[in-house]
Amino acid sequence: MKKLPIVAIIGRPNVGKSTLVNRFTGSRTAIVHDEPGITRDRLYQPSFWRDRDFLVVDTGGIVFDDDSEFLPEIRQQAMMALAEAVAAIFVVDGQEGITAADEEIGNWLRQQNVPYFLAVNKCESSEQGLIQAAQFWELGLGEPLPVSGIHGSGTGDLLDAVLSCFPPLDDLPDADETEINVAIIGRPNVGKSSLLNALTGVSRSIVSPISGTTRDAIDLQIEHQGQSYRLIDTAGIRKKKNISYGAEFFSINRAFKAIRRCDVSLLVIDALDSITDQDMKLAGRIEEEGKAAIIIVNKWDALEKDSTTIYKYEKMLRDRVYFMYWSEILFVSALNGQRVKTIFDSIQTAVKEHRRRVSTAVINEVIQEAVAWYSPPTSRQGKQGRIYYGTQVSSQPPTIALFVNDPKRFNDTYRRYIDRQFREQLGFQGTPLRLIWRGKRPREVEESKLNRATRV
């Protein structure tokens, strides 16, 4: 496979850039809402046209004469998108006409070293669209192309023009097919975007003390020591009762989807806040999805400590997030980079264990030894549980089926004992382990007895 060319979508706020991105990609990944400034960071999405695959990067609305809130950071993100793009699409609003902001962006775009195309959006009517687009000749940016992000009209002609800027396939560098997807999950303002920037070494996500700065799920491909990673920065997830329908609602849905499509989740916790009920719910969501996970305690540098603080803190975490006892805990500071690079080693370990497969012979050796040390419980009627054999039926997460005479004869204590034996003997650090207790039907039991008698 080849690394994909990048096409940057730029323009002032609320001209329909994200709608156009969703049209190009055939998805609804980019958040579309009738409110300016929804998109803030760079959002990459795969697209395909004719015989070429490429990436479309959605950017926030550019405003040059205002430095309030996130606008300077949004401009910086747009500039970084242009720096890596093979072509840019400048989106304007055909219904509103030319504005002073369009002229400013046009003047700035002429100074950039990237081919660009002028897309006049919201031209839903073909005849009226030509009239709406004609007025944009005044910008002096070449032929204005009327398009409709909602209906898709004119987008084919636009993409035909963009494809002319793509380098030949033979000139593209090779891509790494063993990419690891890493989702950064946590409550608002725990330092997820700061951690992403620390891991990459660049200002990839906007960092602000204002809660809810990140809205989209921000994808970023990087390479570390020869391994390719896709890091996914997500919006902070608040309690459900505090979420109203709108931009935040869509942002949190993107965050939950990021958990489902990742290989490993980094659950970020604020060291100053300790662990909250919401952190525990997010940990439960990761465990339910069966994802490998690492608990990241961020802002560790800001906590007053003595020689025993780290041990007490870890014990408190283990006690509260007891269902993720298999997860590694790392104490880091995204602000000064303390122990941030060690996260990559932990990711490698967790992903390896998450994808691991163990032979049936090894699994049954563990079962035999476990049963020899601690026999299955016996009911009041004198009926004892029996484990006939076990086998791994899937990975990601590792799932082992245990075939027994009756699952009801194995209480929670014994099931936890068997789970602990598998982990002590086989590892599986950093990943959940699924045990499926399957009872044999009477016919299968009789057949197994007959087979044993025949062997004798």
Automatic annotation (TrEMBL):
Gene Ontology MF, one: GTP binding
Residues annotated as binding GTP 1: 11-18, 58-62, 121-124
InterPro entries membership: G_ENGA (IPR031166), GTP-bd (IPR006073), GTPase_Der (IPR016484), KH_dom-like (IPR032859), KH_dom-like_a/b (IPR015946), P-loop_NTPase (IPR027417), Small_GTP-bd (IPR005225)
Keywords: GTP-binding, Nucleotide-binding, Repeat, Ribosome biogenesis
Pfam family, one: KH_dom-like
Amino acids binding GTP 2: 186-193, 233-237, 298-301
Domain spans labelled EngA-type G: 5-170, 180-355
Role according to the record: GTPase that plays an essential role in the late steps of ribosome biogenesis.
Family under the similarity heading: Belongs to the TRAFAC class TrmE-Era-EngA-EngB-Septin-like GTPase superfamily. EngA (Der) GTPase family.
NCBIfam families assigned to the protein according to its UniProt record, in alphabetical order: GTPase_EngA, small_GTP
Complex and partners: Associates with the 50S ribosomal subunit.
Name of the protein in its database record: GTPase Der
Organism whose genome encodes this protein: Dactylococcopsis salina (strain PCC 8305) (Myxobactron salinum)
Recorded name of the encoding gene: der
